[in-house]
Design a protein that fits this description.
Layout: H1 5-31, H2 36-61, H3 67-89, H4 95-112, H5 122-143, H6 152-176, H7 178-181, H8 188-201, H9 210-234, H10 238-269, H11 273-279, H12 285-293, E1 302-304, H13 314-323, E2 326-328, H14 337-350, E3 354-360, E4 363-368, H15 377-396
Antiparallel strand pairs: 1-4, 2-3, 3-4
Helix pairs in contact: 1-2, 1-8, 1-10, 2-3, 3-4, 3-5, 4-5, 5-6, 6-8, 8-10, 9-10, 12-15, 13-14
């Protein structure tokens, strides 16, 4: 079966939206699928998945029965958004909003079982008005929230929902008005992928919304420029250009979503020094440091005790480590004088990239070698945390 260009584009966009929803669902279920808020989020994702699965099956088979899933999914979206907004804000929506959304959901869900288009466009106009107003109610609840009752993380999540609706509402409306706007494809999948992008980026340590929005705009710009170049080279018409832009943008968003989800998963499973801090069960500094020696990032770390430092002036060493508890070969605190000579001797003697002060009575150091390419600002910060923990444990055991 050969599909028309618009059908091929719509099929690709529907499958891209499904892929984005599945990626986001995998991120949420990997953390806590049974959390009260996560259950509401997953409900919304599965409702949208029903819609796009129905759309893809309708295009592939041409069987009108699959319009049932498209119409049913569209009817359930407003109540899904309302339930999610209530969970995010930890408060009930006004009674009139609940009544309106519940009544509209029941009405259009029943109508969806009449999957023939014989009652369209009246049904589609009503569904457009209901879906748009339902999404606006969800956005209004977020904007009018009581910020004093929410934590920073909860408020940030609510703002991401409202931010996604800015793009999702007009793109969803464009699906209903596709013929009137003379669009060659239904472009709501792009809004859904934007929602997935914002939700997945919540797992990153970002206090502001600027980073994911700027990244999204960069992707849009890259896709737009690519599409325009292709359109110019092949002398495309208006419809083909719009289809090309939409397909390229959707493909890029799915790829970036997949990479972001994999990065989050690898971070959760990575053997960071912070994991050693959290999971170590040693009761003294010596046991803590011996456990550190087997850590993959600093494997082979050497524990340097006072007898090994007999040739060096202990007072000079204490002065050096008072200034910088974690010494780096690349950035020593002293380069000249007695202190500089002691630092050069330490790094040369133990062939280390970093030397940490573990205890000052008796003087105990840890020397470790980290390749320059494996060293990052986060690793440096983790080393400082490990050093501080070892020092505190040493003081507590005296």
């Amino acid at each position: 079966m050969t599909l028309a260009a618009s059908d091929t584009g719509n099929l690709f966009l529907a499958l891209a939206a499904l892929a984005g929803l599945l990626i986001l669902q995998s991120v949420i279920t990997a953390r806590d699928p049974w959390g009260p808020l996560n259950r509401r989020f997953l409900l919304g994702l599965r409702v949208m998945a029903i819609l796009f699965a129905g759309r893809a099956l309708l295009i592939l088979t041409g069987v009108e029965f699959f319009r049932l899933f498209v119409l049913l999914g569209a009817a359930l979206i407003p109540i899904s958004v309302l339930l999610l907004a209530e969970g995010l804000l930890r408060r009930h929506a006004p009674r009139w909003a609940k009544t309106y959304v519940a009544a509209g959901t029941v009405f259009f869900a029943v109508l969806s079982f009449w999957w023939s288009d014989s009652i369209d466009p009246i049904r589609l106009v009503g569904l457009l008005a209901f879906q748009t107003s339902g999404l606006l109610i969800g956005g209004w609840l977020v904007l009018m929230r009581d910020r004093t009752c929410l934590t920073t993380a909860e408020s940030q999540t609510a703002e991401r929902l409202a931010l996604s609706l800015i793009l999702l509402i007009p793109l969803a409306a464009a699906d209903f008005l596709m013929l009137y706007l003379r669009l060659p494809a239904q472009i709501s999948p792009l809004g859904v992928l934007f929602l997935c992008w914002l939700a997945v980026s919540l797992g990153r340590s970002q206090a502001q919304h600027r980073a994911p929005v700027v990244s999204f705009l960069a992707i849009v710009l890259g896709a737009g420029l690519s599409g325009v170049v292709i359109a110019q080279m092949t002398d495309m018409g208006r419809d083909a250009t719009i289809l090309t832009l939409a397909v390229i943008l959707a493909a890029l968003l799915v790829a970036v979503l997949f990479i972001e989800a994999q990065t989050l998963r690898s971070e959760e499973q990575s053997q960071t020094l912070l994991r050693h801090l959290a999971q170590d069960r040693s009761r003294d500094a010596l046991g803590f440091l011996r456990g550190l020696q087997s850590h993959p990032l600093v494997e082979g770390a050497a524990l340097i005790e006072a007898p090994q430092l007999a040739d060096l002036d202990a007072a000079v060493l204490r002065r050096i480590f008072e200034v910088r508890p974690v010494l780096r070969r690349a950035d020593p605190p002293f380069k000249d004088g007695t202190e500089g000579d002691h630092i050069s001797h330490l790094f040369g003697l133990f062939d280390a990239s970093h030397i940490l002060l573990a205890d000052d009575a008796p003087l105990t150091l840890v020397a470790l070698s980290m390749p320059a390419l494996a060293t990052s600002p986060r690793a440096e910060l983790e080393l400082a945390a490990v050093q501080r923990m070892a020092r505190l444990m040493s003081r507590a055991s005296r």
